[in-house]
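Q: Structure tokens for this one, please.
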Amino acid sequence: MAETPSTSSRSAAAGHVTCGVCARESRQPPFRPPPPEQAPDLDLRPGEPVRSTMARWLQQCPHCGYAAPAIARAHPGAAAAVKAAPFRALIADASHPPLARRFLAWAHVLEETGALHAAAEATLQAAWVADDAGKPDLSRGWRQEAVALWRSGPPLDAEQTVRVIDALRRAEAWEDAEATAGELARLSPPEAVGQVVALERRLVAARDAGRHTVASALPPPARRPHATHQRRDIAGGGMLGWLKRLFGRG
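A: Here is the predicted structure, written as tokens:
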């Protein structure tokens, strides 16, 4: 029996979503992120209360395993990636936290379809999950993978390079972090970027791999909007531009 518009509307309102890959339905509660109140980390992980909502940033189909900010619209090439053995092995890897696997699943689809910078973002988010789970080996490894993806994609601007530096520092790749920071500093980046780079270099010199916030380097206001508050803007540049791209749902 064909679904009537009224039935479809009620289904959507109840949070029932049809997967764009396997066409099966599942319940995916809608997510509206709260306004960010605290400053983000240097790698732009949002502060609270958004920080604690990571489990709701991505939807995942319980039938085929496809994960994305909105699974109803399949990313180009997603179906082939989801059916392939590497994806099946990834989502079945019980040695990784389940939430991290969700972000890695999305990263895998993005990488397989050539969206390398977006794949880097999702891989970094898996590292954040590992941070919260107290698994430093995983978080360091996934930060290194994120850096490799960033560097394999289109040229990075100054603000994106700051995130690479922070990922390297958090991964304890000290020499690479200092070399990257020094190279960026010599390019005379914008003042705000320069302030963050200076802080990163001090942290690297102190062999400090810990979490630090943007407020440590910049005067107030250091709060940044979470990406889910913004519409997708692929052509957007700078810090706000790629914040918008993290979880674009447009």
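A few notes: Residues 37-246 form one domain. The mean pLDDT is 85.
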